[in-house]
Structure formats: C-alpha cells, structure tokens
Design goal:
Number of domains: 2
Number of strands: 27
CATH topology of the largest domain: UDP N-Acetylglucosamine Acyltransferase, domain 1
CATH class of the largest domain: Mainly Beta
Number of helices: 4
Strand order of the largest sheet: 3-6-9-12-15-18-21-24-26-27
Distance between the termini: 60 Å
Strand content: 25-35%
Largest sheet: 10 strands, mixed
CATH superfamily of the largest domain: Hexapeptide repeat proteins
Length: about 270
C-alpha cells in the first residue's frame, strides 16, 4: 500500500492496496478508499465515508466532515463518492445531517476547486460543478448537469439531468431536465449542445424544445401548460420533463423569461 510516511491513516480505515495516500494527507475514522484512488497531499477524509475506485482527491479537499447544520448533533451519518470522481483543491463535501442519512456524489463527477456540496445532497453520475459552486443542503442534481462557476443553489432545490447554468447564477427553484438557467435566475432555453453530446436524437431534441415552448412561452397558466404537455410529449425525453414537473416540489418550478411566477408545488400551480 503506497502510503507516504507523513500521512496519517486511522487504523479503522480500509484503504485498498492499490490506492495512493500522499504526504500529510489525513484519513480520520472508518473511511473506505477504493482501488486505484489517489489522495493528494493535505487532503482530509473523515467520518463514515466511502470513496470509490480510481478517484482523485486533490490537495486541501475535505470529504465526509460534519455538516454545517445547527441541527446536527453528532449522529452517525454517511458520505459516498462514486468511482472515477475527481475532487479538486479546496472542495468540501459534507456527510448527512440526520442519523443514518447519506450525502451521495455519483460516478465520474468533477467537483472543481473550492466548490461545496452540503449535507444530504444527491448528485447523479457525470455531474460537473465548476469552481466555487455552492450547493446548500438536500439539493438533488440529475446526471450530466453542468453548473458554471459561482452558481449558488438553494436548499431542497431539484435540478434535472443535463441542465446547464450560466456563471454566477442563483438557483432558488427547481429546474426541469435539459433546460438552461441564466444569471438572473430564470429558465432561458434548451441545452441543445448538451443534448447532442449526450446522443439525443432529433425527435428527442424536438420534443424538449416543444416542452420548453409550452411551459415557458405559451403564456397559458402553468397547470394548463402541464396538461397540454401531457398531450403532446412523444419521446422519453419529453416524458421525463413531464414527470419532473408533476412531482411534488418544496421550492416550486423555476419561472420563465417573462417572469411568470410559479407557486410552491406542481399540484398547486395555476
């Protein structure tokens, strides 16, 4: 096991023989480090944390530390990082607040420098958080989403798969899959480039465009827009948007470029 002599590794930790622990890194507690993972100098891993295979934990990163939550009373909670995820310098990922709860970062994610993933967040696979992105507690982010530098996300917000935000955006309401959010916090269009790169077909992209026009450009009340959407979706991509906006929401669905305000849950929207 290539553990640098200056590293501190708790005897309760389980470090795979092929993992690499760099100088002055600290592994404190029953942390599990997977095969081929590299922990760079001065990284800090703690708590009931599981790091997958072939991950990179860069200098100054903190993974699995206690949540920044006044309700936290020191209970046993968890943090799980998927295979091949990269966590860059100074990023922090905290474990859950409630006893037995878990903060989850999926596979192949890229958490860039000084980003923060708070307690009980759930990130799908291939999520990218650019430098200084801040996620409050209980945020859910779908697979393939891209949050540009300085994006801030309110607690309990849901962000759908393949969503893209512009830099310095404040996201305080749920964002349906495949859409884009601009700095002033409204839904501004479809992430067509992301859809193409993800292999979405022409009919799927057309279905997403149609869904955006119905929800945000038709000018009809949101509940009726959802009903109209249900009658027009033709692909799995459109059905995914419909499923998302029909689900209960603690923050409501993000407004469109005309500023039409959405209410607190899909079931209540007019």
């Amino acid at each position: 096991m290539p553990v640098h002599p200056t590293a501190i590794v708790d005897r309760r930790a389980e470090v795979h023989p092929t993992a690499e622990i760099g100088p002055y890194a600290i592994i404190d507690g029953p942390v599990r480090v997977g095969a081929g993972t590299r922990v760079y100098p001065h990284a800090y891993l703690t708590g009931w944390t599981e790091i997958g295979a072939n991950c990179q934990i860069h200098p100054g990163a903190v993974v699995g530390h206690e949540p920044q939550d006044l309700a936290f009373k020191g209970e046993k909670s968890y943090c799980r990082i998927g295979d091949e995820t990269i966590i860059r310098e100074g990023a922090s990922i905290h474990r859950g607040t409630d006893p037995g709860s878990t903060t989850v970062v999926g596979k192949c994610c890229f958490i860039m420098a000084n980003a923060h993933v708070a307690h009980n967040c759930q990130l799908g696979d291939d999520v990218k958080l650019v430098n200084a992105v801040l996620l409050a507690g209980h945020v859910h982010i779908g697979a393939g989403a891209f949050l540009a530098g300085g994006t801030m996300v309110h607690q309990f917000v849901r962000i759908g798969e393949l969503v893209m935000t512009r830099g310095l955006t404040a996201v305080s309401m749920d964002v349906p899959p495949y859409f884009m959010v601009v700095r002033s916090g409204y839904c501004a269009g479809v992430n067509i480039v992301g859809l193409r790169r993800a292999g979405f077909t022409g009919p799927q992209r057309d279905d997403v465009r149609r869904a955006y026009r119905i929800l945000y450009r038709s000018g009809i009340p949101f509940r009726r827009a959802v009903e109209k959407l249900a009658q027009t979706v033709a692909t799995d991509a459109g059905r995914r948007i419909l499923e998302f906006v029909r689900q209960p929401s603690r923050r409501g669905i993000i407004r469109g470029p005309r500023g039409n305000e959405m209410t607190t849950t899909t079931n209540e929207q007019e």
